[in-house]
Amino acid sequence: MCLEFSHLTNETMQWLYDQYSFQVIPPMGQLLAGQWQAYQYLVESIRRFPKQEQFKQMIEQAGFDQVSYENLTFGVVSIHSGFKL
Fold this sequence. Notes:
Elements: E1 2-5, H1 11-23, H2 25-33, H3 36-48, H4 52-61, E2 65-72, E3 77-83
Antiparallel strand pairs: 1-3, 2-3
Helix pairs in contact: 2-3
C-alpha cells in the first residue's frame, strides 16, 4: 500500500488546486514554520510525481501483482496497492 499526493482527473479542479498549492501553501509554510523553500519544494515534488496510471505500471514492473489504485478527494491523493508473494 502506498498513499501519495497525486494528480486530479479534472483539468479545472487541477488548475484550482495548483493555484492553491503554489500561491497558498508556501506562504503558509513561511508564516507557520518560517520555511518557504521547504513548502515550495513539497508542492513542486508533488507535481513531478508520476500520474496514477504511470505509477501503477512502475509498481507492476517492480514485480507486484493485482496492482490497483483508488483516487481520494478527486485525485489529490491516491492509494496504490499491490501484492508480491
